[in-house]
Amino acid sequence: MRAVVMREFGPPEVLEPAEVDEVQAGLGEVVIDVEIANVTFVETQVRAGKAPHPSMLPALPAILGNGVGGTVAGAGPASSGARRRVVASLNGTGGYAERVVAPAARLIEVPDGVALRDAVALLADGRTALALAGRAGLGAGDTVLIEAAAGGVGTLLVQIARNAGARVVALAGQPRKLAIARDLGADLTVDYSRDGWDKQVRDVAGEVDVVFDGVGGDLGLAAFGLLAAGGRFCPFGMASGSFAPVTAELAGARQVSVPRGAAASPEELAALVRTALAEAAAGRLRPLIGQEFALAAAAHAHAAIEARTTVGKTLLTVSR
User: Fold this and answer.
1) Nearest CA-CA partner of 80 in 107, 99, 110
2) Residue 112 burial (C-beta neighbours within 10 Å; 0-12, 13-18, 19+)
3) Which spans in 164-308 are helix H?
């Protein structure tokens, strides 16, 4: 079968299309014919050998890719072999391929009315956005600042905050991305690549109640400085290369909480995905799929993400 193999860590070009052995389902597992594979910013870090944690670096050679969508094509012992549309997470590797093996108990059915590509786009980002919103305790009347608001998680947070009745301040770095946030319902959009962006937010919106920090670094720290006493600072990414240096002492001095929550169990993560899919089926949550690449062009997908030219979700399409 076809896959994209990484034999060394390095630039996007280390992702090479190749023929590999067919996968085989074991006890309690199924084989999925992959139609759509998710691509994430973290996977670009893993590919470069600069993962957020060393334990995330796979043994080489490796096939990257954690989230996939497709149809169940076959099953191992004690598994159902019925063909059905599913999405699945793969514990970090294996997704950039025509077929994958996944535990049958971890499959998530795609509801009628939800496109498979939308379901894959919601697999990781949907559960992340819903978990963040839950921890933040979003409510009507909150002023919510969302960094990287045109990204996969950011676009969903804009919609979730809007649906909760919050006032949404969206930060992004290009006019196109600001327009996307406005179209999704943001009340104020601010270009955070310009000097004085934080003063602009304060002048127009005042102090904010919640910050969703998807950038980290100095920008995340500046966003933290906009929080009112009693506010909530919710980090979810490090696009800058590092998390915002917000210590417990700093948060305490500002009377700001940093609700991180305990590590979710597989069952809790699956429940969040099902909620995201149900919201999509009901028309209340719409993932923004900004770009799709062929499986063999996975290197181009990684390069686009690193160049910050992408918006919303980046996917790989698998055709046979």
Assistant:
1) 107
2) exposed
3) 175-183, 197-205, 217-224, 248-254, 266-281, 298-306
Tokens representing 25 are: 């389902």
Cross-strand partners of 33: 71, 99
pLDDT in tens, 111-157: 999 999 999 999 999 999 999 999 999 999 999 999 999 999 999 99
One-letter amino acid at 249 equals E
> In this structure, is the dihedral angle defined by the CA atoms of residues 214, 208, 272 and 265, taken in order, positive or negative?
positive
Reading the block at residue 250, the tokens are 């700093």
Considering the entire predicted model, what is its pTM?
0.93
Task: Indicate left, alpha or beta for 60 from its phi (over 0: left) and psi (-120 to 50: alpha).
Answer: beta
| Rounded Cα–Cα distance for residues 14 and 303 (Å) | 11
CA distance 179 to 189: 8
- In angstroms, rounded to a whole number, what is the distance separating the alpha carbons of residues 117 and 123? 10
